[in-house]
Amino acid sequence: MNWTPENYYFTKLNSAELPELIHFYLVTVQEHYKLDEYSKEDYDIDYKSLIGEDSAFFDQSIYYVLRSKTNNAIHASIRITYWDKEICLPIQKLFGIKTKDLLVPEVDNFWHIGRFVISGKIIGNRINILKKMLFDAFYGPYSLGNGLIIAECDRKVVNTLRKLEIESYQLGDPIIYFYSETLPIYIKSQWLETFIKKNKISQCSTGNDKDIQKFIAMSKDMLLDSKNN
């Protein structure tokens, strides 16, 4: 399948489409790592875990996906979540990192990024897809400022981010998670400046500004809840 702009379109996911996303994510991982022994039981266990996680995150998240114009199938995805500092993040479960260790001083907005995957069936200009997905996910945290983006990130992705001039801080030793070497990292929103400015003209859309308004509303609601409590 060759890449042409006419073949795909970028959109957002609604809650009813979460099962489709999780299935895409698991199948893509299986195909990428050629997991011939990945059984239905393995799939069911992973599916139950991920669908539970994403259901808990959904209301505080925006999911960006790339779909085929031919059959509307998902071919790429990424999720950005505004973290309320209460929901347990995957990084805490996987690496034993405590909430207090993530609450960096003088940071107002905390985020979690996940479900970042691009189908191997796209064999054309994958770098432009990658940049678009990252731009959409990072634009809100960068625009709101004083932010910290937390992630469990494949080492190859960390290296790719560095090539795009996005630095990250490693919080601990890597583990094997979903068949890849995975690092616990965070990215400060100011570290995104070079990437955002380089790609703003080509990647920014009116939808990005609407997404920022959603996150502003979330941050105000969480601030109000913390004062009431």
From TrEMBL:
It comes from the Bacteria. This is GNAT family N-acetyltransferase.
